[in-house]
Amino acid sequence: MKTLIKNGMIVTSSDRYEADILVENGKVVLIGDSIKDAASEVVDAKGMYVLPGMVDQHTHVESPFGGTITAPWHTESVAAALGGTTTIVDFALQSRGESLRAGVEQWKQRAAGRSAIDYGFHIGVTDLRQEVIEEIPALVEEGVSTLKLFMAYKGDLMVEDATLYQTLDRAKSVGALVMVHAENGAIIDLLQKKCLENGQTEPYYHAVSRPIEVETEATSRAISIAEVVGAPLFIVHVSGEGPAQRIREARAKGLPVFAETCPHYLLLTEEELKRPGFEGAKFVCSPPLREEKHHDALWKALQDDTLQSIGSDHCAFSFKGQKELGKDDFTKIPNGGNGIEHRFSLLYTYGVAEGRLSLEKSVELLATNPAKVMGLYPEKGTIAVGCDADLLIFDPEAESTIQFETSHQGIDYDMFEGFPLKGRVKDVFLRGKQIVKDGAYIGSLGDGRYQKRKPYGLCYK
Q1: Full-model pTM
Q2: What stretches of 99-257 show up as alpha helix (H) in DSSP?
Q3: Domain spans of the chain?
C-alpha cells in the first residue's frame, strides 16, 4: 500500500517548504512537487504542517514505583499517538540482585503486542556488580544503548559516586550513553526527615525538602565525574536556573554534556502543590516544580542550546488509590505526572505561538535531537527519503482546551487541566500506516515495534 501526502508544508529541524511525500513499504520514497501516483491513497494536507513523528526519550509506562505502578501500555501508547508521538524510549529498571538483561526483558514483555507506537528501552542501573558491568557491551549490541543512574531516592534507587564513575567508564568504552537523575539524595533524605519531625506532611513540603540547590549540586557533581572519566553525559528533567547554568558552563568548556527539560517545568509552578484538600499531590514529581522565575531561565536554555530536548517524563499515577498513598506523609506520594499526550501541543502553543521557539526549533527539541541522542536517527526524527514514514499532520488553526474528560491517558486527572491549546494533531502515520485520522485513533495495539538503537557514538561522530 502506498500513500501520497499532498500540498502540505513540510517542517524539519532545519527546513520549511511545500512539497508532496510519497510513502511505500513504511518508508518515505519520494519528496517533490506535484507528485502523481495512481496507485496511492491520497491524503490532502493543504493548510497543514507535515512534521516528523515526535520522539519522546523519557517515559515511565507500566512502571513500579513507591508500592504501586504507573498507567499501562495500552492506554499510554494510544495517548502518545494522539499527541503526535510515534516513538518513545521507556525506562526499564534492574531489580536488586538481578541482571540488567532481566530488567529489559521484563519491560519488553509488558510492551509486546500492547503498544500503539514504536518503543525502545533505557536500563536503570541500581545494583552494580562486576557481572553487571560485564553485561553492558552485550546490551549495547542488542540495541539498549542508554543507561540511567539515580543520584536520588536514598535507600531505594540511589547509587554512590563510585557506581556512577564505573558505569560511565564501561559505557564509554562501548559507545553507550549514561543518563542521570541529578539530585543529592542524602541531603533530601535529611530534609524530608526534618519536615516530618516538624509535622510538615502536606504535598508542598515535597518541594521544600528538594530545593533547587540539591539539584544544582548533583548536576555539577555528575558533570565533574563524567569529565574525569572523559565520557558523555545526559542529564534528565532539568527543572530550573541553577542546574541549567552548570550545564551551560560545561558545554562552554566543550564537554559532551546533554540535557532535557519537560513541559511541567516550563509551564507549572510549586504553587500547585499548595492546592487544598490534598489536591497538590497531583503535582508531586521529582525534581519538584519550581518558582515561576525558573520558567524564563529554562526557555532561555532551550533557545541557546544549553538544553537539547524536551521529554515528557510521563510517569502517570491516578489520584485515587495511588497519589493518596501519601495522604499523611508527602514522602509516600508516588512521584510523577502526565505529559505524553500533550507534549507537542503544549510546546507549540506556549513555545512556537508565543514566539519563544521557531517551529523548526520545536521539531529539533521534540523529534530530531531525541532521535540523534537515543540512536534512532536518521530512521526517526526527520523527514527524508529513506527514513521511516513516521509523520504528523498538524492543523495550526484549530483551538481546544485540555480537559481530563477528553484526554486519553489512563489516569483520573490531568496536570494541565484548563490549558488552552492552539493547533491540533490531525493525522499520524507510523511507518506509513495511518494510526490517527482526524484526531481519532484508528490503529491497532501491537502496531508498535521494539527499536534496536545504535550506540551514542554513531550519532555524534
Answers
A1: 0.97
A2: 100-111, 130-133, 136-141, 161-174, 185-197, 204-208, 212-229, 241-252
A3: 53-377
Q: Which residues contact 340 (CB under 8 A, 6 or more apart)?
A: 56, 59, 76, 79, 80, 83, 85, 88, 312, 314, 316, 409
Verify cis geometry, omega within 30 degrees of 0, for the bond prior to 287: yes
Nine-digit cell at 39? 496507485
Q: Strand 233-235 to strand 177-181: parallel, antiparallel, or no bridges (unpaired)?
A: parallel
Beta bridge partners of 401: 420
Which triple of cell numbers denotes residue 95? 531489580
Quick one: angle between helices 212-229 and 185-197, nearest 10? 160
Distances from the Cα of 230 to the Cαs of 125, 169, 227, 256, in angstroms? 20, 8, 5, 9
pLDDT at 458: 55
pLDDT band at 459; cut points 50, 70, 90: very low
Answer yes or no: CATH 3.20.20.140 is held by domain 53-377.
yes
Q: What is the torsional sign of CA 105, 111, 113, 117?
A: negative
pLDDT interval class at 457 (50, 70, 90): low
Instruction: Tell me the average pLDDT of the chain.
Output: 97
> Taking 90 as the threshold, does the pLDDT of residue 456 lie above it?
no
With vertex at residue 26, the alpha carbon angle to CA 456 and CA 86, rounded to the nearest 5 degrees, is 55
